[in-house]
Amino acid sequence: MITWQKSTYSGTGDGGNDCVEVAAAGEAIALRESDTPATVVRATPRALGTLIRTLKAGTGRG
Fold first, then answer.
1. Which of 18, 21, 27, 52 is such that its CA lies 20 to 30 A from the CA of 9?
2. Residue 30 falls within a domain, yes or no?
3. Which range marks the domain in which residue 27 is found?
4. Which residues, at least 6 apart from 24, have a Cβ–Cβ distance to it below 8 Å?
5. Strands (DSSP E) along 7-54, which ranges?
6. Does residue 62 fall inside a structural domain?
7. Which helix (H) or strand (E) holds 5?
8. 44 backbone φψ class: left, alpha, beta (φ>0; ψ -120 to 50)
9. Is residue 44 domain-resident?
Protein backbone atom coordinates (compact mmCIF):
# COMPACT_ATOMS: atom_id res chain seq x y z
CA MET A 1 0.00 0.00 0.00
CA ILE A 2 1.26 3.46 -0.92
CA THR A 3 1.00 6.23 1.67
CA TRP A 4 0.35 9.54 -0.07
CA GLN A 5 1.42 12.89 1.37
CA LYS A 6 -0.12 16.19 0.30
CA SER A 7 1.95 19.20 -0.62
CA THR A 8 2.41 21.77 2.13
CA TYR A 9 1.09 24.32 -0.40
CA SER A 10 -2.34 22.64 -0.41
CA GLY A 11 -5.17 24.70 0.93
CA THR A 12 -7.35 23.58 3.79
CA GLY A 13 -10.67 25.07 2.64
CA ASP A 14 -13.15 23.89 0.02
CA GLY A 15 -10.55 24.31 -2.72
CA GLY A 16 -8.01 22.27 -0.77
CA ASN A 17 -8.50 19.25 -3.00
CA ASP A 18 -6.39 20.79 -5.78
CA CYS A 19 -2.96 19.60 -4.81
CA VAL A 20 -0.04 17.40 -5.69
CA GLU A 21 0.47 14.28 -3.63
CA VAL A 22 3.74 12.37 -3.40
CA ALA A 23 4.65 8.87 -2.20
CA ALA A 24 7.58 6.48 -2.13
CA ALA A 25 6.92 3.60 -4.54
CA GLY A 26 9.76 1.15 -4.25
CA GLU A 27 12.81 2.84 -5.73
CA ALA A 28 10.67 5.46 -7.47
CA ILE A 29 8.78 8.57 -6.42
CA ALA A 30 5.09 8.60 -7.32
CA LEU A 31 3.19 11.82 -7.98
CA ARG A 32 -0.50 12.42 -8.57
CA GLU A 33 -3.04 15.24 -8.68
CA SER A 34 -5.63 14.83 -5.93
CA ASP A 35 -8.44 15.61 -8.40
CA THR A 36 -7.38 12.65 -10.59
CA PRO A 37 -5.84 10.12 -8.19
CA ALA A 38 -5.95 7.26 -10.71
CA THR A 39 -3.33 9.01 -12.86
CA VAL A 40 0.07 8.45 -11.29
CA VAL A 41 3.44 9.55 -12.64
CA ARG A 42 6.55 7.73 -11.41
CA ALA A 43 10.13 8.95 -11.62
CA THR A 44 13.45 8.11 -10.07
CA PRO A 45 14.60 10.49 -7.34
CA ARG A 46 17.41 11.70 -9.64
CA ALA A 47 15.07 12.42 -12.57
CA LEU A 48 12.57 14.19 -10.32
CA GLY A 49 15.35 16.27 -8.77
CA THR A 50 16.55 17.29 -12.23
CA LEU A 51 13.01 18.28 -13.24
CA ILE A 52 12.51 20.38 -10.08
CA ARG A 53 15.87 22.14 -10.48
CA THR A 54 15.11 22.87 -14.14
CA LEU A 55 11.69 24.30 -13.31
CA LYS A 56 13.09 26.45 -10.51
CA ALA A 57 15.85 27.78 -12.77
CA GLY A 58 13.38 28.55 -15.57
CA THR A 59 15.69 26.93 -18.09
CA GLY A 60 13.02 24.81 -19.71
CA ARG A 61 12.35 25.14 -23.41
CA GLY A 62 9.11 26.48 -24.74
1. 27
2. yes
3. 5-57
4. 2, 3, 30
5. 20-25, 28-33, 36-43
6. no
7. strand 5-6
8. beta
9. yes
Give the pLDDT confidence of 8-50 residue by residue, as tens digits.
777 665 555 578 899 999 999 999 998 899 999 999 999 999 9
Nearest alpha-carbon partner for 35 in 22, 19, 12: 19
Amino acid at 49: G
Looking at the whole model, is its pTM more than 0.90?
A: no
The sign of the CA dihedral 42, 45, 50, 55 is positive
Give dist(CA 37, CA 21) in Å, integer. Answer: 9
Is residue 29 within 8 A of residue 44, CB to CB? The reply is: yes
Q: Are 16 and 27 contacting, i.e. CB atoms less than 8 angstroms apart? A: no
| Counted domains in the chain | 1
CA distances from 59 to 11, 49, 55, 56 (A): 28, 14, 7, 8
